[in-house]
From TrEMBL:
GO terms for molecular function: oxidoreductase activity. InterPro entries: NAD(P)-bd_dom_sf, SDR_fam. Keywords: Oxidoreductase. This is NAD(P)-binding protein. It comes from Glomus cerebriforme.
């Protein structure tokens, strides 16, 4: 049963970084109950079938579509209503997307921003009390629960092929004025960094023993991030860019995720940005702006229906 194991929720676990992180977690001697939160259950089942799962670990697959707030709420409700109570030790929020053309979700929000930021904002809020409870059950002075946000160096200005962005604009959050898919991806990652630091402030005020880290896995062309991009982009990312010296492999990226989620080096630390070499690094200047942190926290509350959680 999961009471005898640390419970890890891992999104986007059937391909790319998530799958590599899963494989590395399965090599640990610590016993894990791994909940793979994925959009495509059959594809995940096929991927899991290729793995050897040691007997001290357990894996389950659960439906989670990050482009739907209804799906996020259903997933969270499924975790919170179990009997016996399900502890939540580690959340690894890895799945992300980038769109080449403007698209809207069923919630009438731009898809990239909702998938990469707003749905995680909502999911963490729904699960936060259970994460706190899990830490409180442990009779130790160290932080027990961790939240890992898989971010990107593209949240910083001057990074990427066109050196533009991010540019968070409330008046163009829906992309109706102009749309650049990569810019919206960068915006979602900056919003995630602002959220990381603001959430940590609130956790510190409550003296909650929860660590939250944002990680940069590096530029990894072989992920599924560009699955909806034009064919030439897919070919470039799959066959040519992996040969470049500045790129990283999925295995290397997965190792950064696992380091942030499990390393004892990070005990009793929080609100850190961890780079592709597993080093504590500096995020963008904008991400430390406390006014921006509060502003985009409140905007995120409005967009996710959590108006009661807004900051004064």
């Amino acid at each position: 049963m999961y009471q005898e194991r640390k419970v890890i929720v891992l999104t986007g676990a059937n391909t790319g970084l998530g799958f590599e992180a899963l494989k590395q977690l399965l090599q640990h001697s610590t016993s894990y109950h791994l909940i793979l939160a994925v959009r495509n259950i059959p594809e995940t089942e096929k991927a899991i079938a290729t793995l050897t799962i040691p007997s001290h670990h357990n894996i389950e697959i659960s439906k989670l579509d990050l482009s739907s707030f209804t799906s996020v709420k259903s997933f969270a409700q499924g975790l919170l209503t179990r009997d016996p109570i399900l502890p939540l030790n580690i959340l690894i929020l890895n799945a992300a997307t980038v769109k080449s053309t403007l698209s809207k979700t069923e919630d009438n929000l731009e898809t990239t921003f909702q998938t990469n930021h707003l749905s995680y904002f909502l999911l963490i809020d729904l699960l936060l009390d259970r994460i706190k409870w899990t830490s409180e059950q442990q009779k130790t002075d160290s932080f027990i629960s961790r939240i890992i946000l898989v971010n990107s160096s593209l949240h910083k200005p001057g990074i990427g092929h066109n050196k533009v962005g991010p540019k968070l604009e409330l008046e163009n959050l829906d992309g109706s004025k102009s749309y650049d898919g990569m810019l919206f991806y960068k915006n979602s990652k900056l919003a995630q960094m602002l959220f990381c630091y603001q959430l940590n402030k609130l956790l510190e005020e409550e003296k909650a023993r929860i660590s939250i880290f944002a990680i940069e896995p590096g530029f990894i062309p072989q992920t599924e991030l560009v699955r909806e991009s034009p064919l030439y982009v897919k070919l470039l990312m799959k066959y040519f860019l992996p040969l470049a010296s500045f790129t990283r492999t999925p295995e290397q990226g997965g190792a950064v995720i696992v380091y942030a989620a499990t390393s004892p080096d990070l005990e009793n630390k929080s609100a850190l940005y961890i780079n592709k070499l597993c080093q504590i690094d500096k995020s963008s200047d904008d991400s430390y702006n406390e006014d921006l942190q509060k502003l985009w926290w409140n905007i995120s509350c409005d967009l996710t229906g959590l108006e009661e959680k807004k900051l004064s």
